[in-house]
Amino acid sequence: DELQKRLDALEEEDPDLCCPVTLGLFVDPVKAPDGFAYERESALALTQKDGLFVSPMTRQAVPADFRDDPKSKEAALAWRATRAAELTRFAAEAFKANPDRPFIATKALDRVAEYMQALNASAAGAPLELSEAVQKQTTSLIKAAKTAVNPDGTWTPKPAALRALHALSLMCTG
Predict the structure, then answer these.
(1) CB distance 114 to 160 below 8 Å
(2) What does 110-165 look like in DSSP terms, one character per residue?
(3) Are 109 and 87 in contact (CB under 8 A)?
(4) What pLDDT was estimated at residue 174?
(5) Residue 31 region by backbone torsions, left for phi larger than 0, else alpha for psi between -120 and 50, else beta
(6) DSSP classification of residue 148
(7) pLDDT digits 0-9 by tens, 82-116
(8) Mean pLDDT for the chain?
C-alpha cells in the first residue's frame, strides 16, 4: 500500500548520522582515533582493559582517546527535527485518509516520540513549532479514539497505543 511505502521511506535514517556499532542515530557521539564517530557507550564498551580501542571499522587497536563530536551531535539533532516534522505531516495525512484505521499514523508518531525524546534532552530542546504540530496531531488522534469517555470515537485503539499518544502529547507540552 502506498501509505506504508511512504512510511517505510520516512523511517529510513541517514547512515552518516548513525553509530556503526548500534546503527542508531547519534545521541552522544565521540570521535575515535580511527577517524570514525561512535556512540560514546559503544566506544567505551569496545575499549579493552589495557586502554586500547579495537576499531570495528579498521580492526586496528588504537589508544582509547575519544573526543566529543559536537558536529555529528548537532547534525543528528537537526536531522531528527526535520524528520519528526515530516513524519508528523505524514501522520496527519494518513489519519485523514483512514480515520477509522489510524494505525499507520500512530506508527509514524511512535518514531516521532523517539526523536522528540532526544530533541527535548538536548540543550536547545525541541523546536516550538514542531512541538505544537505534534501536539495537534496527537490530540486529534486521542479525540477520535473510541474509549469509555468517548464511545462515539472513530477508531478503537489498543491501550498501549493510546498510552503512547498521551505520553507523546505530554512530551510536547514542555
Answers:
(1) no
(2) HHHHHHHHHHHHSSS-S-HHHHHHHHHHHHHHHHHB--SS-TT-SB---HHHHHHH
(3) yes
(4) 62
(5) beta
(6) S
(7) 999 999 999 999 999 999 889 999 999 999 999 99
(8) 95
Is the whole-model pTM more than 0.85? Answer: yes
The DSSP result for 20-36, as a single string, is TTT-SBPSSEEE-TTS-
Q: Could you tell me the strand order of the sheet in which 37-39 lies?
A: 37-39, 29-31, 67-68
Q: Among all chains, which residue has been given the C-alpha cell 499518544?
A: 165
- Distance, CA of 24 to CA of 71 (rounded, Å): 16
Q: Which amino acid is at 152?
A: D
Tell me which amino acid residue 90 is: F
CA distance 63 to 46: 11
End-to-end CA distance of the chain: 36
Nearest to 80 by CA among 67, 72, 140: 72
Helices (H) and strands (E) counted in the chain, each on its own, are: 6, 5
